[in-house]
Amino acid sequence: MRILHISDCYLPRLGGIEVQVADLVGKQREAGHTVEVATATPGEPLPGVRRVVAGLPFDLPVHPRGTVHLIRLMTGWRPDVVHVHAGAVSPFAWQGVRAAVRAGLPVVVTVHSMWDPVTSGLYLGLQAAFEWRRWGIAVTAVSEAAARPIRAVAGAGVPVHVVSNGLDVTAWHPEPGRAVPEGERGHSEGAHVVAVGRLAPRKQPVRLLKLLKAARAMVPGTIPMRATIVGEGPARGSMERYLRAQEMDWVSLPGRFTRDQIKELLASADVFVAPAPRESFGLAALEARAAGVPVVARSQSGVADFVRPGKEGLLGHTFDELASSVARLVRDEPLRASIAAHNREVEPIACSWPAVLDGFERCYAEVRASRP
What phi and psi, each to the nearest 5 degrees, are found at residue 314? Predict the structure, then answer.
């Protein structure tokens, strides 16, 4: 099958969507498909990557005449399906949708973000202006939580499926002999709480520090506790100031880690925290779950698709419930051990690449069947 992926952002930019799309492209090529990418992100030439760049300030990934360029690309190469990747607002991606519709090609749109009420209102306005519900597209979301607001806007005429983000699950398994069994760990350093993510204001990283402080207050002083927050971003300064003011020297901010470094860190982790309420999926939480670490996350986030309370971790709907869940796992070593053992033994199959590829191929077949 000839597949054209369209994404505002792509390599060499490194972010959740960029890495996920690049991994998907690689897996589809390994499966025997002919795959190309069209992106508005400038960068060095890459095999099978068409850069539609306007040279705007700050390397903004938009193009004022993107639709025209994409129609030319599609009519020349004639893919069997166009797969568009969109965030909350992705002008170039939606130009790709419009171009594919005008070129008469089947279209699947993957929404990688969580629509808030403002975003939903925007797409209702676009429906009134362009009637995109009648374009014959299919939509996928990365989790049930992300799918719900899309379905409310798209209505019955636009199918909205859930296809998880993909992960090479076996690559995150603890290496034999590396993960120390719970009962054999020394307690001088205490329970190790880990979080991974970009230190951006929208992720509320200072609120994460407040959550850790609240959890620490619920744990007896005789039980040691430490935390490591991996990542880099503009909120780092405010986090460092908060840590100094609260004398939280048991929390470290080591900066950005590679995948291998994160895997090594997770081998020493007892609890992973993913507190963002509007997390559409939570790839870092999935990596921790695949590595055998109990996960604490919001029940209303996409993490709830692969974390069940008491099975793979604990879920909370509010700040207080999250803090209580972290404290409970720090205090309750047998519960920690049972969840960790379950996570090591039971793989998140729905998030594995074979399942993800199968999900997308079913979506491709659906939109291709709907067009002559």
Answer: -130, 145
CB 271 within 8 A of CB 331: no
What residue has token string 């995150």? 172
> Sorting pLDDT into bands at 50, 70 and 90, what band is 86?
very high
The CATH T-level fold of domain 2-166+352-369 is: Rossmann fold (3.40.50)
Helices and strands in the chain, H and E counts: 12, 13
Residue extent(s) of CATH 3.40.50.2000 domains in the chain:
2-166+352-369, 169-349
Confidence tier at 372 by pLDDT (50, 70, 90): low
Give the global pTM. 0.91
Q: Which long-range contacts (CB under 8 A, 24 or more apart) does 62-70 make?
A: 62/8, 62/91, 62/92, 63/92, 63/95, 66/40, 66/91, 66/92, 66/95, 66/96, 66/99, 67/95, 67/98, 67/99, 67/102, 70/6, 70/38, 70/95, 70/96, 70/99, 70/100
> What number of other Cβ atoms are within 10 A of residue 320's Cβ?
12
- 23-27 contact pairs (CB < 8 A, 24+): 23/166, 23/353, 24/166, 24/356, 24/360, 27/166, 27/353, 27/356, 27/357
The residues near 139 (Cβ < 8 Å, ≥ 6 apart) are: 108, 109, 110, 111, 150, 154, 158, 159, 160, 161
Q: For the domain made up of 169-349, give the CATH fold.
A: Rossmann fold (3.40.50)
